[in-house]
């Protein structure tokens, strides 16, 4: 079936637009797939990939922009192999910004024709590098009118990852002190803005190129971890929560030591997927659970703090709050470069080789 043009979709009045009509109109579309794991060269932009039927709680989004997340490049390279290899080919992509093309029978929070943004769960197999992305109702919300699709597409996955750590796990509150290790990345940048909006004081570590940017969004101190002779001496006082986006043994040790008793240390570099890849799901996941439990008991006993691995998850309450922060001008993640979806290989190569340190966005016409 011919891929519909944007003009064709717009001619269908939203009030008359039903999922059943769309199903007969759109049965396939373009999508970037990973047929096997490897470098950027494995990516294929296929012109006719099936659009599956919507379930009652799902939303079909006509994609306008998607961001390239570190998870995308890692999945392409084989991260999570034990989970994803039996499911190949995969469609990459977590974030999306676009328009609602159709909704499932039970969806009430968004409607056809509405501009939306959102993010899929990290383990989703059908991602957002496609003309038509499918998300659950819990994973999508109206797009902030103040943001373009490109600007909106870089926010949900990173901001929801930070939200899970700071709001759901640490339950930060006004007046607390927060340390963000690696504030220059998208998750760290979002975490700083979330903490500042909650009335917290924030200290962060980053590269020299990020210092001005992080101070501008409210960080009280930004420590250059490369130029500073002793990062730990440069950081003063204790903290109620530490979000470690780097997650190497040195930053873990530093973060733990900076916490007050009763504080929370959260790292993005949990070992569940890597251990599962190494030993297989049957052995790897129990090993990962044992490693996490051991650390939790150790640090609770030795330092009186809570230790956790943190991951993004669908959270409509969090996504709505993030949208409100965007509308108030309190949440924005800079975009450094955009590529058309036809240049997805070049975009991944630029990310792999760190030609572009900040956020990259793929645009779909």
3D structure, described in words:
The protein has 365 residues and is of the alpha/beta class. The protein has 2 domains: 28-154 and 334-363, Quinone Oxidoreductase, Chain A, domain 1 (Alpha-Beta Complex), CATH 3.90.180.10; 158-309, Rossmann fold. Helix content is 35%, strand content 26%. Helix 7 (186-197) links the parallel strand 9 and strand 10. Helix 6 crosses helix 7 and helix 11 runs antiparallel to helix 12 (281-302). The radius of gyration is 21 Å and the shape is globular.
The number of helical runs is 14
User: What's the order of the H and E elements?
Assistant: HHEEEHHEEEEEHHEHEHEHEHEHHEHEHE
Beta-strand content bin: 25-35%
Unreliable stretches covering 5 or more consecutive residues: 1-21
Principal-axes shape call: globular
Global structural class? alpha/beta
């Amino acid at each position: 079936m011919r891929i519909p043009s944007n003009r064709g979709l717009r001619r269908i009045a939203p009030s008359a637009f039903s999922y059943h009509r769309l199903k007969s109109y759109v049965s396939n579309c373009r999508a970037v797939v990973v047929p096997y794991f490897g470098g950027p060269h494995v990516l294929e932009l296929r012109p006719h990939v099936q659009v599956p039927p919507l379930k009652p709680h799902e939303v079909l989004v006509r994609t306008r922009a998607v961001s390239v997340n570190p998870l995308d490049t890692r999945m392409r390279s084989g991260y999570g192999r034990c989970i994803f290899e039996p499911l190949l080919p995969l469609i990459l992509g977590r974030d999306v910004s676009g328009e609602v093309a159709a909704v499932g029978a039970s969806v009430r929070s968004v409607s056809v024709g509405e501009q939306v943004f959102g993010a899929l769960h990290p383990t989703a197999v059908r991602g957002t590098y496609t003309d038509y992305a499918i998300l659950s109702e819990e994973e999508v919300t109206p797009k902030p009118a103040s943001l373009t699709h490109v600007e909106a597409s870089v926010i949900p996955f990173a901001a929801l990852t930070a939200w899970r750590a700071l709001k759901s796990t640490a339950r930060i509150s006004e007046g607390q002190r927060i340390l963000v290790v690696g504030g220059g990345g998208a998750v760290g940048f979002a975490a700083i803005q979330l903490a500042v909006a909650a009335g917290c004081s924030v200290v962060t570590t980053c590269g020299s190129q990020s210092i001005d940017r992080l101070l501008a969004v409210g960080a009280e101190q930004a420590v250059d971890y490369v130029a500073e002779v002793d990062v730990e001496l440069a950081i003063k006082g204790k903290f109620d929560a530490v979000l470690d986006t780097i997650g190497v043994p040195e930053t873990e040790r530093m973060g733990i030591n900076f916490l007050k008793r009763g504080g929370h240390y959260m790292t993005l570099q949990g070992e569940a997927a890597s251990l599962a890849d190494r030993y297989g799901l049957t052995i790897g996941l129990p090993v990962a659970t044992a490693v996490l439990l051991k650390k939790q008991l150790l640090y609770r006993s030795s330092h009186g703090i809570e230790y956790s691995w943190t991951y993004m998850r669908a959270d409509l309450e969090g996504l709505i709050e993030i949208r409100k922060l965007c509308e108030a001008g309190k949440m924005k993640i800079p975009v450094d470069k955009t590529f058309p979806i036809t240049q997805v290989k070049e975009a991944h190569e630029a990310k792999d080789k760190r030609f572009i340190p900040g956020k990259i966005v793929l645009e779909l016409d």
